[in-house]
Structure formats: structure tokens, C-alpha cells
Amino acid sequence: MNSSVSPVAITLFFVVIAATLAITYFAAKRSHTASDLYAAGGRIKPWQNGWAIAGDLLSAATFLGGIGMFFYAGYDSLLYAFPAMVGFIIMLGFIAGPMRRLGKFTFADAAAARLSPVPIRIIAALSALAVTFMYLIAQMLGAGGLIQILFGIPYTIAVVIVGVLMVIYVAFGGMLATTWVQFTKAILLVAGAAVLSFLALAETSFSLNELYARTAAAHEMGLALMQPGGLGLTTLESISLSLAIGLGIPGMPHILMRFFTVSNPVAARRSIVISMAVVGVTFFFVYMVLGPAGALFVTDNPAAMTENGTVQGGNNMVALHMARILGGEALFGIIAAVAFATILAVVAGLTVAAASALSHDLFANVFARGKISERQETLVFRGSCLLVGLIGIGLGIAFEGQNILFLTGLLYSIAASACFPVLVMSMFWRRLTTIGAVTGGSVGLAMSVGLIVIGPSVWVQVLGNAEPIIPLSQPAIISLPAAFISMIVVSLLT
Hints:
Elements: H1 7-28, H2 34-39, H3 46-57, H4 60-73, H5 82-102, H6 107-111, H7 117-151, H8 155-202, H9 208-218, H10 235-248, H11 253-256, H12 265-298, H13 318-367, H14 374-398, H15 404-428, H16 434-454, H17 456-460, H18 476-493
Helix pairs in contact: 1-8, 1-13, 3-8, 3-12, 4-7, 4-12, 4-13, 4-15, 5-10, 5-12, 7-8, 7-13, 7-14, 7-15, 7-16, 8-12, 8-13, 8-14, 9-12, 10-15, 10-18, 12-13, 13-14, 15-16, 15-18, 16-18
């Protein structure tokens, strides 16, 4: 695939960029204060925020990575869907309301509400940065592959283009621009997934049974594609992955920030209900229809496969090949534009969270100890956006070739181990001490990141070593209990 055969896709690609820059321009005219940049001034309606939260979670990892993972791992890709809904239930019941009451702009605001703020902000900010940078890698990978397939330009240049765009959106438009980009992208993604699902089902008599039977017959894995075991995870690793996603989503800093964009705790809970509905419908399309359909229509299709039997552009591009096969150039262009809008929206949300951790939590409240003017803080926020963009570009280049949904599973481990315990215990356990919270957060962060680095994901696949130091690919089952236990023990002792 290249630009010479995709004029529709290229046209829509530039339409998406123009539309998002227009949103940023109008948002920038209304984003002057720190509250505007961090939380859109608390003026977002619950239904808008609900779609934006869904937009945060329905990333390139879900759409491109989910369909791509089903192509080579089959049924096991559902391990990324069901625990996510558990995470939403936890947010609805325990997190959204208290977060909105306690906090101001960031996850660290709520965590530090009744503890010594400086040490809590440091560990909370470091945890937030670890999660957001890991998530940025996944989005950069999707963006690089997508632009590569559209224009035929080198992957590195594609990643740089996305990095520049994300800095522009957030530095000038702040959370208001991010919200509207996410809101628009979520609607486009659900509509695109619905159209693609309709066309796939139309080819199989609108019967899921026929779709699954034909997929099993066409794919080299056969019936094994529709059964557990495709990812090769042990039972322990499967449990660990489920824990990471179910408890990681309520600890994602860029999602927690969304509760501050509405006016009160009731509105925060309503936002979650709406986002649950949107995400649930999209998960059905992606994992129950489009995943099997991608395996059916892309397998052995010369327009989508290389001579070596691999997918052109990698497994993350199965969705785009399927769109071209089922709907021609027009649908390919639409789905490519939707996928790119998805990436832009999510990287914007992540950049807000990372830049806020640097400017609000670390600079304004730790280094400056609150003695900073609002103008200075907004300038630091915009400078932080530039730094985040540069780091995101570097990480996206370093992790080239990884499956983006798999990387998302790893970042959920960090969120579940480092962010979730500190947030939950600070809100609900009155005997928690500052040193206990810092210890637990530090243990969760160090263990989750450390175990990922010395495990197969980084030690072998990124650093090129022959064998991992530990064989466990999903560390949450170790790092999450360790964070809670250390937090409780140290708090009781102090």
C-alpha cells in the first residue's frame, strides 16, 4: 500500500488534521488559566465527558491492536476486553465521586489530599509519567505504521509528525481541545467499527456462527484460533493480565483527570455510565466481529499479505487491509482517517496528563512549593508538553515492531501497581501514613517497571537478549500485592 493508490485515504487524513487543528485553535482562545489547561474549567457536560472518557480508552491499541492480535492469537485477545469492564465498575462505584470531591486537577491532588503533599506528589507524578509514557509508545507505534502505509514514508518520520501534532494540540488548546478531539474521535470510531462490522457480517449471511466457522477454516490455526491459548500465556500470566487491566484502568492518570472536567461528583458518575455503554458496544464490534472477520478476509489475500506470509505493515494494520477488501478505497480512507483521529486524540490526553504531572505536581507544588503565578504555571505546562513530545518520539522509535495491544497490557500493570494502590488507600484507609503511601507507591512502581524490563517484553524483544532474566511477561500478580502489603505494613509500623 502506498500513497499512489490511496488518494481518498490521503485526502481524509489531511481533513482529520485540519479539523483537529481547527478545534485546537478555537479551544486555545478559551484556554487562558491553569484550570482551563488542566481541566477545561470544569465546564464539560457529563455526556460529552462520557464520550471523551471512552475516547481515552478506545485507543489505537483497542482498534488496530485488538483486531491485529485476534489475527495471530485469536480468542485470547478477549483477555483485554472483559477485565476492562470490571475496571469501569470500580470507577463508577468507588473512584469517580470521591476523586471529584478531593481533587483539583490531577490524580496526585486527590492522593495528597490528607497526607503530606510533597512526597506523595513526587511518587504520584513519577507513577503517572511511567504510565503515560508507556501508553504513548503504543500510540506512536500505531501512528507510525498507519502513516507508513498511507504515504510510504519512513517509520521514524511518521512518529515525528505525530509527536509535533500532539505538542501543538495540548500546548495551545489544553484539556478543552483534547476533550473535543476525543469526543469527535469516539463518535467516528464507533461509527466506523459499526460500518465495517455490517459489511463483514453481510459477507457471512449476518451469522456469527458462519463467520466463526469460515474464519476457522481459512486461518492456519484452524479451530485453535477460536479457543484459549493463542497468546501462549500461563494461567498465572492470564490472571496477572486480568488483574492489571481491571485495576489498572481505575489508576490511569489521563482518565482520572477527566473527573475534574465536570462540575460535581454526580456528573462524574454519569460520565462513567455513558462511557461504559460506548466502550461495551465498541468491544463487541472489535472482538466479536472484526477480529474474526480480519482473520477471515486478510488471511492468504495477496492484496494484504507479503510473500513471506506476513501482513503488509504488520499485524496492527489488519483492520485497514480488511476495510479496503470489504469497502474499497473509500472505506479504506475512512477507516484510516478514523484510526489516525483515534491516535491523535489519545496522545493528546496522555500529553495533558504527563505535562500536568511535570508542571502542576512536580514544578508548581514540589519545587516551587505553590509559590508560582498562574501565568508561570501555564508557561511551564506548555514547555512540559514539548518535553513530553520529544520523549514520546524517542520511545516510539525505540519500540518499533511491538504489538500495541500487548504493550497496553504492560502499562496497565504499572497503573495497577503504582497508581491504583496509592489512590484507593489514600481515599479509603484512614490509618494510611505518608511514609506508608510513598513506600507502597515506590515498591509498586519499581517492581512493575523492573519486572517488565527484565522480562521477555523488553529484555528479549527490545534489547535483543537471548533469554529473559525472569520468564513472567505480565508482572501485576507480583507487583500489585507487593505495593498493597508494603503500604499496609509500613503504615501500621509508623
